[in-house]
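Postdoc handover notes: sequence design on the structure in folder B. Input tokens:
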């Protein structure tokens, strides 16, 4: 396989890893779930680095990478909310933002005929990092260490603030895009 296709292959692998992640989480096999999440997170870091370093970004990669991220993160939040590790309100906030962004990307690609979806802002990347850290902390809490509630609450607060802020930022950017199109 050419290096050109490796980032997309890794993104697709991350998408496929959601299935065993959900299965093992619902089976309460949290050590396996934790390992699958680590592998999925590593594929996320690796695919982006390879695509940039070897200059092999593709149009398909612009779609599959964020889609795989969103499906993994949303699945994690829903499962952690279902298992009552995370409060329902944070699950709703994350789901609302990610569904809106996915819908906005769909509108951008297929209705406005933009050649590519919006690139993630620095705030959005920070939000994704904090979401992944919160998920990792929650899985670690379930699997290995009972983390202090104050630590988890602090991360929940940071995730909430960056999730809402990045959502508002995307709304502002979309509004600017619509004003330009008129």
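Designed sequence:
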């Amino acid at each position: 396989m050419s290096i050109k296709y490796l980032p997309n292959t890794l993104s697709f692998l991350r998408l496929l890893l959601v299935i065993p992640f959900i299965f093992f989480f619902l089976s309460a096999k949290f050590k396996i779930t934790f390992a699958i999440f680590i592998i999925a997170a590593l594929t996320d870091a690796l695919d982006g680095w390879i695509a940039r370093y070897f200059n092999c970004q593709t149009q398909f990669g612009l779609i599959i990478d964020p889609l795989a991220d969103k499906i993994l993160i949303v699945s994690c939040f829903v499962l952690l909310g279902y298992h009552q590790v995370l409060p329902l309100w944070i699950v709703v906030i994350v789901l609302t933002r990610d569904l809106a962004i996915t819908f906005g990307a769909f509108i951008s690609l297929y209705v406005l005929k933009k050649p590519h979806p919006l690139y993630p802002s620095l705030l959005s990347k920070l939000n994704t990092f904090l979401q992944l850290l919160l998920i990792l902390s929650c899985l670690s809490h379930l699997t290995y260490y009972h983390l202090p509630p104050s630590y988890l609450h602090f991360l929940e607060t940071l995730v909430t603030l960056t999730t809402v802020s990045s959502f508002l930022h995307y709304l502002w950017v979309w509004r600017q895009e619509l004003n330009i199109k008129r």
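Context for whoever picks this up: The chain has one domain: 3-181. Don't rerun without checking with the PI first.
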